[in-house]
Write a structure and sequence with these properties.
The structure is a single chain. By secondary structure, this protein is α+β, with helices and mostly antiparallel strands. It has one domain (2-109). 31% of the residues lie in helices and 23% in strands. A 3-stranded antiparallel sheet has the order 4-3-5, with helices on one face. A two-stranded antiparallel ribbon has the order 1-2. The longest helix is centred in the first third of the chain and has 15 residues, at 2-16. The structure holds zinc ion. Residues 40, 42-43, 45, 74, 76, 99, 101-102 line the site of zinc ion.
Length: 111
C-alpha cells in the first residue's frame, strides 16, 4: 500500500517546493511613532524616504504571483510601480517611502 502512495507524495512535494506561502499583513501597515515618524507596523522601523522614480500611470504592470504575495506580507516594500533607480519607463521623479526590512525580505525571497 505504501508503494502506491510514494509517487503521489513525491509529486506533491515537488509541486509544492518553491511555492512558499506568506501570511498577508492585516491592519494599517504604517503608524506614527512618538516622534511623529512614519513607521512600519510589521518591523517597528521608521520608513526610509528617498528620491526615486515612478512609472507612467498608463503602463500596465503585471507582477508575478510571488511578488503579489510578498508585497502583501511585507506591506512597506517598494511598490512595483516605483524604483530607486532610473531605468526604462521608471523615469518620473517621485519621493518614495519604504521599510528597508520589508524591501530586504521581498528581495531575498524573490526567485
Ligand atoms: Zn517593514
Amino acid at each position: 500500500m505504501s508503494r502506491c502512495h510514494t509517487p503521489t507524495i513525491v509529486i506533491f512535494a515537488a509541486l509544492c517546493f518553491g511555492c512558499a506561502t506568506y501570511k498577508p499583513f492585516i491592519g494599517n501597515p504604517i503608524y506614527k511613532d512618538q516622534n511623529g515618524r512614519a513607521t512600519c507596523s510589521l518591523h517597528r522601523l521608521p520608513l526610509t524616504k528617498v528620491q526615486g522614480y515612478h512609472i507612467r500611470d498608463k503602463v500596465i504592470l503585471d507582477p508575478t504571483v510571488q511578488f503579489e504575495k510578498l508585497s502583501k506580507a511585507y506591506p512597506n516594500c517598494i511598490a512595483i510601480s516605483d524604483s530607486l533607480e532610473l531605468f526604462g519607463d521608471w523615469n518620473i521623479p517621485k519621493g518614495i517611502q519604504y521599510c528597508q526590512e520589508c524591501e530586504r525580505l521581498v528581495k531575498s525571497k524573490i526567485q
